[in-house]
Each structure stands twice: as C-alpha cells, then as structure tokens.
C-alpha cells in the first residue's frame, strides 16, 4: 500500500506543481520540467530518480533564493519521500557500470 501511494502521489505532486507554476508565475520552464519529471517517475524510467533529484534540487535552490518557503518545503519533503523504502523499490538508485551497459555498447 505504501509503495503504491508513493508511486502515485510523487508524480502527481510534480504535475500539480507544474500547473501551479504555469498558473501563478507563468513559468513555462518550471511547468515543462515538472511534467517531464512526473512522466519519468510514472514510466519508472531507469533514470527517473536522478531526474527527480535534479528537479527538486533546482526547485529548492530557486525557492531559497527567492524566499518562496512553501515551495522550498515541498522540494525538501519530496526529496525525503524519495529516501523511503517504497521509493527506493519503485525507482532504484543508479549503479556504476550498469548505467553505461544498458544504453551504449562498450568502447
């Protein structure tokens, strides 16, 4: 149950953030990045975890610099959710050696 909840709510939260960024700040770049992160998470792409960390880190840095505290809290909470066992099971960490071998032939 916890795994299903995390797998559903984290991408949904990215889409909600994208809609809010587009509606209130008219920020197309944030909206596109949020939707892409959500799609990678829903598809369980091998690099979804990495993409989500990049998205939430950029969101946290921008929020801290502009004093947007609710957005900073969202980014920090999302990164903490990514540390749960349910998220680790859904989106495993990248492992050295496996990353190159699953996409490219060896040199």
Oligomer: single chain
Round the mean pLDDT to the nearest integer and report it: 88
Rounded to the nearest angstrom, the distance between the terminal CA atoms is: 43 Å
Q: Pick out the low-confidence regions.
A: none
Total count of helical runs of at least 4 residues: 6
Global structural class: mainly alpha
Query: What is the beta-strand fraction?
Result: under 5%
Largest sheet: number of strands, sense, barrel closure: none
Over the alpha carbons, how many angstroms does the gyration radius reach?
15 Å
Given the C-alpha coordinates, what overall shape results? Answer: globular
Structure description:
76% of the residues lie in helices and 0% in strands. 25% of the residues are buried. The chain has 6 helices and no strands. The protein has helices spanning 2-24, 28-43, 48-66, 69-81, 85-90, 98-101. The model has no long low-confidence stretch (mean pLDDT 88). The longest helix has 23 residues, at 2-24. With 107 residues, the protein is mainly α.
SSE layout:
Layout: H1 2-24, H2 28-43, H3 48-66, H4 69-81, H5 85-90, H6 98-101
Describe this protein with a few key phrases.
globular; mainly alpha; 76% helix; 0% strand; 107 residues
